[in-house]
Structure formats: structure tokens, C-alpha cells
Design a protein that fits this description.
The protein has 21 helices and 27 strands. The strands form eight sheets. Strands 6-5-7-8-9 form a five-stranded parallel beta sheet, sandwiched between helices. Strands 14-15-16-17-18 form a five-stranded mixed beta sheet. Helix 4 crosses helix 5. It is globular and about 70 Å long. It is an alpha/beta fold.
Length: 606
């Protein structure tokens, strides 16, 4: 039997029992384009049948190099079609895929490779392979480096791997996959946690297949749809999005690799589905609002008018209420003059925008909805294959993360911690039984570490992290993330870190968007480098207005009394951000200890 027909027997389709079989099942069932990407600067594509063939060739190449079922195979690369092919080729060989963020330092790569005992690593190019050379001595199990592009004396290329695979018959892959059971380990995903060393989450084939079915059922993807993929495939959310698209027969359109071109590529590629992290929506919102606020008063008034009527029209449509003739005319005018221009930033074919991996402000979701872009917020952890809850087109409540996905149980413990149980919940942390016992209860509930609540209608809201709670000197418990979300809605702010544990009031450290803050400085003839901007009184005055506006929406105890402007941005390289752009709060608190202390010292000096 050809590996591309593993999903059927005697004319009757069988459900895939592992992810390798899922790939071949999709290759057999879907006849269109699977992957859209750039190759040497030109548009290129792979059909579903070619996806199956390439996956089989890579699988056989790995097997020819001695990779056995259950062996660890790592991938160190930017999100690309080559990443997907390496992933599925490895899974078709029965290997356990271990992703590594392309931004990881050599030492971070060494930790993942050594801890997982990886035998082979796919590297994007020789620059990534150079990281491996520096730490190879500390990875005794590592035997092979495979380059996706370029060549090197101490590595083999993907093409050479595929050629070596030709020595094995295609049936070898079928036999290998027949050995892989649903509960077998499929991938080790190392958390990009905000505290402590990363832990290897053990996710089985059954976990990921269950998650794929959950999302396919809720999102309704099919062969006419296109998903734009730019999220790091080392993150489980991007891996699940990839599996959902492939299972449903949709197209995956990959980014070029340039983060500054994401919005331009959205307009050009016009995907129907767009999964992203909050920072992307914050940047689009900031750019739009910056242009509006820098324009004449008439344009600002027109924009506000259009948003009001957009929100009214969208709300009426969801509730099944007809607008009056006047209301319809106002909505059409608002859409034609203003709202459609914002919507076009995402491409004219967009049906669903998704957001996850970190909290997003409710006001931001309402802004995009008024413009005709429904951004559906979901919630999940690496430990749940990025799945737990999701807002949908027919059941959406802004400010919540939606209702539990099919087959998912969500509960809230007495102390407010969110608990999750279901077929997508991981099997534990690799080689860390103590952490596994801490995370998983004997009856299968995952302790998420997140605080939240469930409404009478079943919508789940996440209110913060247990470990991030700020307890002021008066004993008030404050969740900083909600305040930080509102501060980041400012066109001038890229990051906001609120501080105040055991203090009488809250303060914050803010980082600047140099382009937007630079406009303020240029109006007054000031330099626009970060250090100058951070000290510029005009920039500070604009930020004070933004902070005052946020404070006006908050309870007194939640208001930010003082703030500092940092003269550098937070970054992954500096260790302050995870690869999914979440702030490592403890590290920022440590690095900026003098800044926060100084904010309180100013009060004492008065």
C-alpha cells in the first residue's frame, strides 16, 4: 500500500491514529494546494499530493539514517514550508519532534537538545547550525545536523536526506506508522515560561488529534480557505493551526520571514483565517489611531462617528435586530468612508481573525469588531495543546476567552484557579515527576496557574496569573495584566509593566514605540533615539495624558500613580520577553529594581 493511502482500506476511510497517518490521509483526500510560500523571492506552492510525497521522502531519509520510532528529532528554524515538511516527515518516521525557537541562544538550544536527548536536528541554515557547533559537545546524543538551505562539511542537506530515503521502499513508512499508537509521544514542546528553566511538555498523538478535531469543528475550515502562518512553529498554537489547516484541506500561506511586512502580506495574500498574538493587533491599532490623531480635527470626529455606528451595526447584526433605515444608511456611509479601510489592512477575504497565547484588551477587540474584523479570543496552554476555550462567530463575548471547546471541561477551584480536563491535556513534564504531580491532579485536572471565572452562560474569563498578583501594603489584591493591557493600547507604548507589591500604590515602567513617540519629538525639534525620547518632556507629557485616560477607567486602587520611561525596549535577546512576546515579569522587576525604587523615592522626597 502506498503511504498516501494510509487513511483508507477497502474503500472505507479509517480515522488516523497518529499525526503521520493524518498527513497521508489529507494528501489522499484533498486535491488542491497545501502550502504557499516564497522560494528564492518568487511565489511557490506544494499540492497535497506533493506534501504527502515529500513527507514520505523525508521520513524514509530519517529512517535510513537510523532514526527509530520514539527518537527525538529537533527543528531549529523560522516558520516556513520547510519547517512544516521537516515536522511531518519526522512524524511520519515515528520520531518525537522537539521544536526549538529560532531566537534561542546556543546555550538555550543546548538545554533542549541535551534534555530531550535529540539524535538529529534540522537547522534553517548555517547560521543556525553554527549555534549547534558551539554547544555540540554538551549534547552527547546528537548525531546529525540537517540543513534546510545551504551546505556545510559537518551537515547533510534536506535534499541529500531525501535522496538517501530513496533506498527504502515507501511501504517502510506504512509499517513504521502502524507501530505508532495514539497514546505514544508525538512531540516534546519546551515551555517558554516566564520563570525558571523550560519544561518539556509531553504531548501525544491522541492529544494533538483531539485538539485538531476540536478546532476544525468550531472554525469550519475547508478547502476554500487560506490560513496565514507567521507564528513561530516552535509554539504549540502554530503547530495546532497547521494541523487544523492540513486536516481540513485548507491552504497555509507562509510569511516571508520579515516581521515588518506582516500587515502588507495580509493585504496581498488576503487569507480567510489569521491566527496571531495580541501584539500584532496592538500594533495595527496603534498605527491606525496614530494616523487619525495626527490628522485634522474633522477627520478625528469622522473616525469617532464611524466607530460608533460600526459598533451599533455589528451589535445589531449579532443580536438579530434590524437597523432602522437611517441606521442602515449611517452604517453604510461609515463603512465606506472609514471602517472598510481598516478592514482592508487584513485583506479583503478575511473571515476569522484569532488571538491567543497572551491576554488582549477588550477595548481592542471592540475596536476591530466595529471596523468589521471579528477577532476571536481563545485560551489554552502548551499543556493543553493551546486549546481549552474559544469565542466563535455564533457565541462571542468580548472580555471573555469564550466557551469550552467540544470535549473540554473547565472548572474554577475555590481559590479562583482555572482547571482544565479533556483528551488534549498533556501527559506530564518530561523527566520531571515532581512538576507533573504539581500540575496534574490524580483525577486528570490540569492546574493552569491562571485565575478566572465562568459566567452563567458558560463564558470563561481569565483575570490573571496566580503568581503575578500584586498585594499592596493595604492588603488589596490587584491583577496587573488588565492594567497593562489598557496601557499598551496607547499608540506610544510597546510594553507596560506594573509594579506595587507591598507598596501603597502602583507604578509602571513603560517602553516607547520610537516611530509614534518620534513624531512628538520631531514636532519640537528633538532627536528621536530611544534615550533622548525617554527623557523628552513633550513625550512624557503625551504619555501622562494616556496614563490619565487609563486611570479614569480604573478603580482608585488600580490606578498608576507614577511611571518611568525606559530608554530601551524589552526583547527576547535581553531575556525580558518569551518567544511569544510575553513579559518575563520577574526578570524585568529584577533588572529595573532601581527604576521602581526611584519612583517611590520621588514621593518620599516631596
Amino acid at each position: 500500500m502506498n503511504p498516501t493511502t494510509l487513511g483508507s482500506t477497502a474503500g472505507k476511510r479509517l480515522e488516523p491514529q497518529n499525526l503521520g497517518q493524518m498527513v497521508f490521509d489529507a494528501a489522499e483526500r484533498h486535491g488542491g494546494t497545501a502550502l504557499l510560500f516564497q522560494e528564492r523571492g518568487r511565489p511557490a506552492s506544494l499540492s497535497y499530493s506533493e506534501l504527502g510525497r515529500r513527507s514520505s521522502e523525508i521520513a524514509r531519509g530519517l529512517m535510513a539514517h537510523g532514526i527509530e520510532a520514539g527518537d527525538r528529532v529537533a527543528i531549529l528554524a523560522l516558520t516556513s514550508a520547510e519547517w512544516t515538511l521537516a515536522d511531518y516527515g519526522s512524524l511520519c518516521a515515528g520520531a518525537v519532534v522537539t521544536p526549538i525557537y529560532h531566537t534561542n541562544s546556543p546555550e538555550e538550544c543546548a538545554y533542549v537538545l541535551a534534555h530531550s536527548e535529540a539524535r538529529l536536528v534540522f537547522c534553517e541554515d548555517d547560521d543556525q547550525a553554527a549555534k549547534i557547533r558551539r554547544i555540540r559537545a554538551s549534547c552527547p546524543k546528537l548525531e546529525w545536523i540537517v540543513l534546510m538551505s545551504g551546505d556545510a562539511d559537518d551537515a547533510i542537506t534536506v535534499e541529500e536526506l531525501r535522496e538517501r530515503g530513496a533506498e527504502l521502499p515507501t511501504e517502510a513508512v506504512e509499517r513504521r506508522l502502524a507501530e505508532i499508537r495514539p497514546d505514544d509521544l508525538a512531540t516534546l514542546v519546551y515551555t517558554s515560561g516566564t520563570t525558571g528553566p523550560p519544561k518539556g511538555c509531553m504531548l501525544s498523538h491522541a492529544n494533538l488529534l483531539a485538539t485538531t478535531r476540536m478546532y476544525v469543528q468550531q472554525l469550519g475550515l475547508g478547502e476554500t480557505h487560506t490560513l496565514y502562518q507567521f507564528l513561530p512553529l516552535a509554539h504549540v498554537l502554530a503547530r495546532v493551526a497547521q494541523a487544523v489547516a492540513i486536516s481540513a484541506g485548507a491552504r497555509i500561506a507562509y510569511w516571508s520571514g520579515d516581521a515588518t511586512k506582516i500587515v502588507d502580506e495580509l493585504s496581498e495574500l488576503s487569507p480567510t483565517h489569521f491566527p496571531a498574538v495580541p501584539r500584532i493587533y496592538e500594533k495595527v491599532h496603534g498605527a491606525v489611531m496614530g494616523k487619525v490623531q495626527d490628522g485634522p480635527a474633522l477627520n478625528r470626529a469622522l473616525f469617532s462617528w464611524a466607530l460608533r455606528h460600526g459598533a451599533t451595526g455589528r451589535r445589531a447584526a449579532r443580536e438579530g435586530r434590524p437597523l432602522s433605515r437611517t441606521g442602515q444608511a449611517q452604517y453604510r456611509l461609515a463603512d465606506g468612508l472609514v471602517l472598510g479601510k481598516v478592514r482592508d489592512l487584513f485583506g479583503r477575504e478575511l473571515q476569522i481573525a484569532l488571538v491567543g497565547a497572551a491576554p488582549i484588551g477588550r477595548e481592542l477587540l471592540e475596536f476591530f469588531d466595529a471596523c468589521g474584523v471579528l477577532v476571536l479570543e481563545g485560551y489554552g496552554l502548551t499543556e493543553t495543546c493551546a486549546a481549552a476555550t474559544l469565542n466563535t462567530e455564533t457565541a462571542v463575548r468580548f472580555g471573555s476567552v469564550g466557551k469550552p471547546l467540544p470535549g473540554t471541561e473547565v472548572s474554577v477551584a475555590d481559590d479562583g484557579e482555572i482547571l482544565i480536563r479533556g483528551p488534549h491535556v498533556f501527559g506530564g513534564y518530561y523527566l520531571d515527576p515532581a512538576a507533573t504531580r504539581e500540575a496534574l491532579s490524580p483525577d486528570g485536572w490540569l492546574r493552569t496557574g491562571d485565575l478566572g471565572q465562568i459566567s452563567a452562560e458558560g463564558f470563561v474569563s481569565v483575570t490573571g496569573r496566580k503568581k503575578d498578583l500584586i498585594i499592596t501594603s493595604s492588603g488589596k489584591n490587584i491583577t496587573p495584566v488588565n492594567i497593562e493591557n489598557q496601557l499598551r493600547e496607547s499608540r506610544f507604548v510597546t510594553e507596560a509593566i506594573v509594579y506595587g507589591d507591598n507598596q501603597p500604590y502602583l507604578v509602571a515602567a513603560l517602553t516607547l514605540d520610537p516611530e509614534e513617540a518620534g513624531k512628538v519629538a520631531l514636532r519640537h525639534g528633538t532627536q528621536t533615539d530611544r534615550a533622548t525620547l525617554a527623557a523628552d518632556p513633550d513625550v512624557r507629557a503625551e504619555l501622562q495624558k494616556e496614563v490619565d485616560a487609563v486611570n479614569a477607567r480604573l478603580a482608585r486602587i488600580e490606578q498608576v500613580k507614577r511611571f518611568a520611561i525606559l530608554d530601551t525596549d524589552l526583547s527576547q535577546a535581553g531575556g525580558e520577553l518569551t518567544p511569544t512576546l510575553k513579559v518575563k515579569r520577574a526578570i524585568v522587576y529584577e533588572k529595573c529594581a532601581d527604576v521602581f525604587t526611584g519612583l517611590y523615592a520621588k514621593e518620599e522626597q516631596r
